[in-house]
Amino acid sequence: MENLLKQIKERLENEIKEIKISEDFERLEKKYFGRKGEFTIAIKSLKDLAEEQRPVIGKLANGVKKEIEELLENAKQKINPIQRKAKEFLFGFDPTLQGSKKELGHLHPCTLVLNEIIDIMSSMGFMVIDGPELESEYYNFEALNIPASHPARDMQDTYFIKTDKNFKYSEKLVLRTQTSALQVRTIEQFGAPLRAIFPGRCFRNEATDASHDNTFYQIEGLMIDKNISIANLVSVMNNILSQIFKREIKTRLRPGYFPFVEPGFELDINCLICGGEGCSVCGDGWLEIMPCGLVNPKVLEYGGLDPKEYSGFAFGIGFTRLVMMLYGINDIRLLQSGDLRFIKQF
Ligand code: DAH
């Protein structure tokens, strides 16, 4: 019996060396461990042994079994995975089965709308400018006529970044609260005349709800030239809105205060979710979508332009809100939730 077990092990060792593909394993396993396998039969014959011999040989048989199993396992690991795949492909391929569909990614709703707006604005001669999300306090506030003591800063509480004392710039840094931060940067870089939009992500220290998030998108527009008036501002904005919504949109213009425009306005559109009746997104049926105004002469000066020679208008599209309007999304937080059930609908 002892000899028989050893022989089985030796034979198997030799056969394992010849193995190349996974089917061979199945064959070997059946040959030795199957119901009528050599090893199985040997074990069954244990019961014919003398009683005192049984525990000794039984132990030996268990040891051999373990060794054999290890041998098989090791050999399995070594099998060439490509060969295995090829074999599986040839023998496991059923051309009548339905294929598995590869899912393609797609653009986020914000990107879809942004692409459209970029098209509209570039057709009107506006260039598209990108800028830093980690912005200096100077461009985010000071250069926009919002000095440190100005109450307007309270409305835009944000994340102030601690800088190391070895940091090479003396500027204090903040996560920008508004894309307006790019106004002076752009004037400095390109001078006048100028037509540009600045789409981008902004941040505020907000308590979140259906219409507020701490991270959101704005699109700023800036046009500077000689003799720019409110008429130019209104006509460009109406043009943009009617192209975006592809229909006449009810709007209202009311006075608004922003330190970097003078005079300043709020352009509201009739809420497309509730049709103007009032809902959790708009409140009273109107949605503040485009604050705007004529560029404050101080801002032009910060940018190095002479306000006697140049004037301009600026507007800020509440871009995230616009996307919500366009798609009828009733909670701003969904847009950044990463929830596939939501995002796959676009
Ligand atoms: N940056 C302002 C905000 O986030 C919005 C704004 C107001 C932008 C008036 C403008 C403007 O360009 O003229 O509250």
Strands in their spatial order, largest beta sheet: 1-5-6-10-9-8-7
What's the multimeric state? single chain
> How many distinct helices?
12
Q: First CA to last CA: what distance?
A: 71 Å
Question: Can I get a quick summary?
Answer:
The chain is 40% helix and 18% strand. It has 346 residues and is α+β, with helices and mostly antiparallel strands. The protein is elongated.
Furnish the topology, listing elements before pairings.
Layout lengths: L1 H17 L3 H12 L4 H7 L8 H26 L2 H12 L16 H15 L3 E2 L5 E3 H4 L19 E2 L11 E3 L6 H9 L3 E10 L11 E11 L4 H16 L5 E5 L5 E10 L15 E10 L1 H6 L8 E7 L1 H9 L12 H4 L3
Parallel strand pairs: 1-5
Antiparallel strand pairs: 2-4, 3-4, 5-6, 6-10, 7-8, 8-9, 9-10
Q: What labels would you give this structure?
A:
single chain, 346 residues, alpha+beta, BirA Bifunctional Protein, domain 2, 2 domains, 7-stranded mixed beta sheet, 3-stranded antiparallel beta sheet, 12 helices, 10 strands, 40% helix, elongated, binds 3,4-dihydroxyphenylalanine
Characterize the structure shown.
The protein has 346 residues and is of the alpha+beta class. The protein has two domains: 90 residues; 235 residues, Bira Bifunctional Protein, Domain 2 (BirA Bifunctional Protein, domain 2), CATH 3.30.930.10. The protein contains twelve helices and ten strands. The strands form two sheets. A seven-stranded mixed sheet has the order 1-5-6-10-9-8-7, with helices on both faces. The protein has a three-stranded antiparallel sheet with strand order 2-4-3. The chain is elongated. The relative contact order is 0.11. The model has no long low-confidence stretch (mean pLDDT 88). 3,4-dihydroxyphenylalanine binds next to strand 8, strand 9 and strand 10.
